[in-house]
């Protein structure tokens, strides 16, 4: 019965509950912080080493070069953190634990890395696009933002000359064709590992600092906007502005 269901769909079904938890965590942790570049940069930094590891270890048949994002991570991090960010970068303990887990399962069965490829890159092509659009909207609304082109700092979620839909379809096809060749034991091991993806993601997301500061900053912006609106309403009603 399971074999008749595309393997990519099996992966989604197996992780539906913990995926919802992860979405809620991202929204609670980063919803307002999307407007704070320091918090955004830290969010990029915690995933940089994970994506880089996968792109160095997973064959192109399973992780097509057009999906590779290491260079784009580095471009965005240089934009936010400056040219010397690499020399100062040391992965957090939680990120190191994530990488150690990837090394461990690769030693057990390198094919298990495909679970990480599927969920992380589909996340980038789906939720990552939404987060970037929300961030871009927030920047347009922020009158104090640093001047510059709107695409600066958004290389990670920008796929030049690539259709997001087609990239998703290609990734699903890779996973479905691979899943069709698996025996029951390996298939179940892949499904179990898929849940681990979100557990590890949630662990490193919780390490992002500065969210409270960013939220206070946004509240201040909102308060200023409300005050400006009320003052304008008062002036109009009092006849001081026609």
From TrEMBL:
One of its GO terms (biological process) is heme oxidation. Its EC number is 1.14.14.18. One of its GO terms (molecular function) is metal ion binding. It is an enzyme of class 1 (oxidoreductase). Gene3D superfamilies: Heme oxygenase-like. InterPro entries: Haem_Oase, Haem_Oase-like, Haem_Oase-like_multi-hlx. It catalyses: heme b + 3 reduced [NADPH--hemoprotein reductase] + 3 O2 = biliverdin IXalpha + CO + Fe(2+) + 3 oxidized [NADPH--hemoprotein reductase] + 3 H2O + H(+). Keywords: Heme, Iron, Metal-binding. Belongs to the heme oxygenase family. This is Heme oxygenase. It comes from Anopheles atroparvus.
